[in-house]
Amino acid sequence: MSLPPGFLDELRSRVSMAQVAGRKLIWDMRKSQQGKGDMWAPCPFHQEKTASFHVDDRKGYYYCFGCHAKGDAISFVRETENVGFMEAVEILAAEAGMPMPARDPQAAAKADRRTQLSEVAEQAVQFFRLNLKTAAAAEARAYLVRRGLSEEAQARWEIGFAPDGWQHLWDHLRGKGVAEDLILDAGLAKPSRKEGGRPYDVFRNRIMFPIRDARGRAIAFGGRAMDPEDGAKYLNSPETELFDKSRVLFNHARAREAAGKSSPLIVAEGYMDVIALSEAGFAGAVAPLGTAVTEPQLELLWRISPEPVFALDGDRAGLQAGQRVVDLALPLITAGKSMRFCILPEKQDPDDVIRAGGAEAMATLLDQAKPMVELLWQRETAGKVFDSPERKAALGKALRQAVAKITDPTIKQHYGQEVKTRLDALFGYGPSKGRSGPAGPWRKRGQEGPTQTTRSSALVTADRDDLLQESVILATLCAHPGLIAEFESDLLDHRFGTEAFARMAARLASMMPDPDAPEISLEGTSCAQTLEAILSERHVTISPSLRPGCDPEVARMTVAEGFAKLAARTGWQREMEDAIEDFASVADEDLTWRLGQAAEAREAAGRISQTDTTEYDIADNGARISRDERNALDNLLNGISFAKGRSNGG
Fold it and tell me: 547, 535 in Cβ contact below 8 A?
């Protein structure tokens, strides 16, 4: 419906932002200045202990300095109550004593229809509740007792029973004067396929669980079959004008309230799991309704909590369900939108865990919940052997493809770094073999490092060429920002030689400017100083890609070739570092001289390879290295062999 001009302004002027927010918050009175309408509290939209949520009551706005949520009283009600725009307006208008404008007749009829269907569903709730007390429901009551649900718990969850028969609910509602079309449209009965046949009840001989929306209105049901021969153990209402199961969470309203009081948001498999968790003190429990988690349900979860915890069965099916959630979530995650996974013992659900070890056992498992990246890693590595270059390459490719789904550039960068760290550790390229680790490539089994002469040799400083190449790449991308999108993955995947370069690469990847932009601005950032230092280097400024009027294609080729050469040299360095470790215990001045000769050969090879006629070999560890680098490495290995022979008395 449309609102007359000025209505919303009048509404905002009548309601107090502080009063509206105060219903959901506990103000930090040490930080707040009530007389000035300057109020502070922990944010209701993300988990925190400090008061970073600010309300300016005079201007009627709120802003969180932690998660950056912002808006007015209407948006606050929408977010905290999970209602639509017009429903939020109606709630605030009622509080302010403002009558709502006359609604469009068609919209009013639709809203009235939904209200009528919900009222019919409420009548069905009461019918099922009464039938749970009958003799016909004795077996259902016994089942609930075996599941540990007292009469009080059954009442809290409004659990009922649908008697065995074709028209018990239909006859009851028709006897109350409910129109046939309302019963059918509420999903409580289906028309008969027999000519002249009467409609029949959807739920028969089942324990019934009411499903309510975020505002607590009955909209559907879930039923557990009492007959073991029934084809569907659990059955939900059909989709109706009220009920879309892909957009509903069981126990949504209660869980949202509990999460607002710092209870963890737990996503379980079904109704009984949610009830068991809630009765054990984990009130922030929800469940999807018989289907895999959907994107709308993920958004609902993130509106309740920035990091819901999925409780998964420890069997294969449970893990597969978790991995499907990971695939769904990867393109959607941002800072403040993630999840964790609680892996339960095999063949146990939350109820089993709580029965065996109490709430403490469940709390311990929740505390051990794993991040998303752990499930991603487990899927690609569990039960697999990576004993060949091909298998290693396949693993890297699969992980890169998964990370590529992430759209948030900052999150993508962190995932890329985490995956790279895990791959290095798995394949033996950990800190003891990387150039950036605090111990460097020299440490092995507690041995001391090389002599000062060796440390200052050309071999140790050989990665200067990499830094020069990286300088040209970064400067070229700053001068030709339209290329950044094409080389985004290279910027995030390459391990730059200095922290300053790494920060600058991440900054460029996150900016992703307009491809037609003539230049890129880094003013006001630490990267500006890095760029200034890069451009002060003569070898950078003479690069063809940085000359005025440079053809963009020349710039593109410069960056592409630069990354290709860095990738080739990275493989050479890893094999070189492996070899270095092998002679750490026999290094002497004679060997140092030989290493210097090998390094000089490598540098000469690097100068020769400035032309694009490089021939490549495959190193022992599967990396691609140039023929010239291969020769330099052979000289190094000969030096190692000679030194070992001397140390053994040869």
Answer: no
Whether 461 is covered by a domain: the verdict is: yes
Same domain, 517 and 641: yes
Whole-number Å distance between alpha carbons of 545 and 480: 9
- Domain-embedded: residue 425: no
In 3D space, the residue among 140, 129, 122, 250 whose CA is nearest the CA of residue 188 turns out to be 122
- Number of structural domains found in the chain: 4
Closest CA to 123 of 184, 178, 49: 178
> Predicted confidence band at 627 (pLDDT cuts at 50, 70, 90)?
low
Can you state the angle between helices 85-96 and 73-81, rounded to 10 degrees? 120
Residue 104 DSSP symbol: P
Quick check: 572 and 625 in contact, CB under 8 A? Answer: yes
Burial 582-602 (b: 16+ CB within 10 A, else e): ebbeebeeebbebbbbbbbbb
Q: Report the CATH number at residue 227.
A: 3.90.980.10
Residues 232 and 250 in one domain: no
Tell me whether residue 238 is in a domain: yes
pTM, entire model: 0.57
Cβ–Cβ contacts within 10 Å for residue 436, how many?
12
Q: DSSP alpha helices (H): ranges in 1-61? A: 7-14, 17-22
Tell whether 252 and 238 lie within a shared domain.
no
Do 587 and 630 belong to one domain? yes
**pLDDT tens track for 509-564:** 776 555 455 556 676 666 888 888 888 887 787 888 888 888 888 888 899 888 88
Q: Which of 524, 519, 474 is nearest to 500 (CA)?
A: 474
User: Tokens at residue 65, please?
Assistant: 């300095």
Domain interval for residue 541: 440-647
pLDDT computed for residue 596 by the predictor: 58
The answer to whether 196 touches 158, Cβ cutoff 8 Å, is no
